[in-house]
Structure formats: structure tokens, C-alpha cells
Amino acid sequence: MRYFDVRRLYAPHLCILLLYVYNIAGIAIPFSFVTFTVHRFCCIVYHTNLFFKTKRWVTICIVSQWIGEFVISLPFLFRRGSYCSNELWMQIYTCMMTTFLPSLINTILNIRIFAYVRSSTRRIQPQVNVIPTNSSNNIQQPIISRRDVSLLRQMIFIFFIFITGWVPVYLITIIGYFVRIDPIILAGTAILSQLCILSVIINLFICNHTLREYLTNKIRQCIGL
């Protein structure tokens, strides 16, 4: 019986591919948050354009996300130097693409969303106050519903938790190139990142009523209740 030799993965050309995939995996989650924010930004700010409320727009957002991740990770394929070494600039690049760039984009877009909603609410509110009660059909509806506001806040909170858990991991890795890091600190940052991922999963399960009811019914069926 043959056993797989892990060292085969570290052949020169496979090393390039592994590091390329490593960077894609690192930026996948934060860029999914960016994709969601871009989608909601266009739906809210350009709410009169029906295209942004179609499934085609959702598909474009998802496809653009993956294309962007493949393109952003290209420097790992065309780099020079030792094939199997994860150099300092590569760690800094992954850290920037995973934490700081998504944070900057999310912050700017979310600020613009809430600023737009706030200004729109101020314009609509006086008009609503002067309309008689018997002309309710002419009352302008809010641009963003309470459900959308709650969803935006939820996604911002989840993104904040994710960044809190993973920024220390990447920073410690970069600092490790210059000074020796205590193994306890390395283990602590790794545990923190996993706890943040776990808390995100639990939070999504608690807030997703449909999923919670579906899983609850399946569990009841399994145990015969």
C-alpha cells in the first residue's frame, strides 16, 4: 500500500499554486462582506434602478468577487525568488488584502449608506407630516426598511468580529519575521481567530429564523418528537 508523501506538495511549481490558493482562501471571507456591502449600497442608493434588484445583479456581484480574488492573488504566481518560501512581502500583502482593504471599503460604503438614508429620511418626513390621513396611498415609502437596517447592522457586527479575530494572526506572523514570538502568544491568536469564527456561526444561526426552524424540525424528526 502506498502512502502519500506530504513533501510532494512542496515541489517548486506546486508551492506556487499552494501559496496562490492560500491567499485566495485568506481573502475569500472578507471580500464576501465587501460584495454584500456593494450589493446593498447599489440597491439602496440607486433604488430607482430596478436592475440592482434583480438576480442578474446578484450573480454579477458573486462572479465579480471571485474574479477579483483570483486577480488580486496573481502576484503569488508571478513572483521571483524561492518557490517554497512565504516571504515577508507576501505576508504583508495578504494581511493588507484580508484586513485593511476590506475594512476601508466596508467603512466608506456603510458610512455613505447610512448618510444617504438619514438625508432621505429628513426629506421624506416633512412631506409625510403634511399629507392628510385619508390620502395614505400618496405617502412616500421609506427607501430602506427596518429589516434592511437590521441586516446591515448585523453584517457590520459580523465583519467587525471577523477582523478582530484575524488581524492579530496576520500581524503576529509579520512581527515574527523580526523578533521571536512566544508559542503561547501564537497559540492564543490562533484560538482567538477560531473563537471569532465560531461566534460568527452561532450569531448567524441565532439570527436566521428560517434556518433555525428548519434545523429544529429536522432534529425533532430525528429523535422522534
Provide an overview of this structure.
This protein has about 220 residues and is mostly helical. The chain has one domain: Up-down Bundle (Rhopdopsin 7-helix transmembrane proteins). The chain contains six helices and no strands. The protein has helices at about 10-45, 55-70, 90-130, 145-175, 185-205, 210-225. The longest helix has about 45 residues, at about 90-130. The chain is globular and about 55 Å long. The chain starts with 11 loop residues before the first helix and ends with a helix. The relative contact order is 0.09. Mean pLDDT is about 80; it is low at about 135-140.
Secondary structure layout:
Blueprint: H1 12-45, H2 55-72, H3 88-130, H4 146-175, H5 183-207, H6 209-223
Membrane topology: Multi-pass membrane protein
Protein name: G-protein coupled receptors family 1 profile domain-containing protein
Subcellular location: Cell membrane
Short description:
The chain crosses the membrane at residues 20-45, 57-78, 90-115, 156-178, 184-206. With 225 residues, this protein is an all-alpha fold.
